[in-house]
Amino acid sequence: MPADQRSLLDTRALTPQDIIDLFRLAEEFRERGERDGFYYDPARGPLREGSKVVALLFFEASTRTRLSFQAAAYRLGLPVLTMEFAGSSVVKGESLADTILNVVAMGPDALVLRYGASAELDELVPRLGIPVINAGFGTLAHPTQALLDAFTILRERGRVEGERVLIVGDILHSRVARSNFDVLHKLGAEIGVCGPERFMPSLAELPSGSRVFGELDEGLRWATVCMGLRIQFERHRSQDADARREVADYHRSYGITRARLQSLAPEGILMHPGPINHGVEFSSDALEDPRSRVLQQVASGVLIRAALLARTVGMAKLD
Ligand code: CP
């Protein structure tokens, strides 16, 4: 299969069946992991351990995405090539594009990549000639997060189709929201959004049939899944006084608290992709709510990223 077909730059390239196939493989890995501690089938060998290498390049901060890719690769027996940004030659002035080209010249079988907004890199990445997995590019897409979110909903609610997913917060600056709109809509979930007008995307960006809630309590009464989003302080223009004022008021109107969660159905679930700004989008006690599935999302992340790595470097057939 050509490298560009094994890349995952945006979920828009995936069909609903592709997503279902990934979920099946992730579920298989979960069962194997619980039984054997690793994801490959011992009867079929350690999946040519050492014959495939994956490079992880993160030019923006990450805890969950980076380490879960690493954990997934280890459990697949797939060696990882990675570097600390602060210890790389980027600090000597090497460009990110040159860094990527040099790492690709070392011959990894796939590249997992995160960077901030960069038109130059957006143009370079599809031309690298090896499969690339988007681990979060700018504000455009975070496909693996959306896939793990939908997988978590499937595991925790038993289905995605027909679920009513309320996405709360800084949707305008969120690549997680954009990818979630696509994946959840494809899988038949209903989508609602809620947040300050300033953080709302245009209606044209929302999937057809989406609901916009002015009041959080109203949205929570509608939802079966509530997904809080981080306020993306680093993507706000610092001179933007309106945005700062909105953030100051945010928790009062849109912060998810134990008291507010009374409006969410008892069997509903609460999610957040992390990292959380405590006291802003969630109160410190919201995570203690028994409906919180925030850490289950992290566990799902390892499984989904393992399934994607396996697909990308040809370790597993998804048909
Ligand atoms: N959700 C997410 O992308 O977290 P990290 O930035 O820690 O990877």
Helix/strand-derived category reads: alpha/beta
CATH topology of the largest domain: Rossmann fold
Number of domains: 2
User: Tell me, what is the CATH class of the largest domain?
Assistant: Alpha Beta
Quote the average pLDDT.
91
Spatial ordering of strands, largest sheet = 7-6-5-8-9
Number of DSSP strands?
A: 9
Ligands (ions, cofactors included): phosphoric acid mono(formamide)ester
What can be said about the biggest beta sheet?
5 strands, parallel
Please give the share of residues in helix.
25-40%
H and E string: HHEHEHEHEHEHEEHEHEH
Give me the number of helical elements. 10
User: For the CA atoms, what is the radius of gyration?
Assistant: 20 Å
What distance lies between the first and last C-alpha atoms, to the nearest angstrom? 13 Å
Oligomer: single chain
Describe what is shown at a glance.
The chain is α/β, with parallel strands linked by helices and 319 residues long.
Explain what the structure shows.
The structure is a single chain. Helix 3 crosses helix 10 and helix 6 packs across helix 7. A five-stranded parallel sheet has the order 7-6-5-8-9, sandwiched between helices. The radius of gyration is 20 Å and the shape is globular. The mean pLDDT is 91. 38% of the residues lie in helices and 13% in strands. It folds into two domains: 146 residues, Aspartate/ornithine carbamoyltransferase (Rossmann fold, 3-Layer(aba) Sandwich); 152 residues, Rossmann fold (3-Layer(aba) Sandwich), CATH 3.40.50.1370. It has 319 residues and is α/β, with parallel strands linked by helices. The longest helix has 21 residues. It has ten helices and nine strands. The site of phosphoric acid mono(formamide)ester has 10 residues, from helix 3.
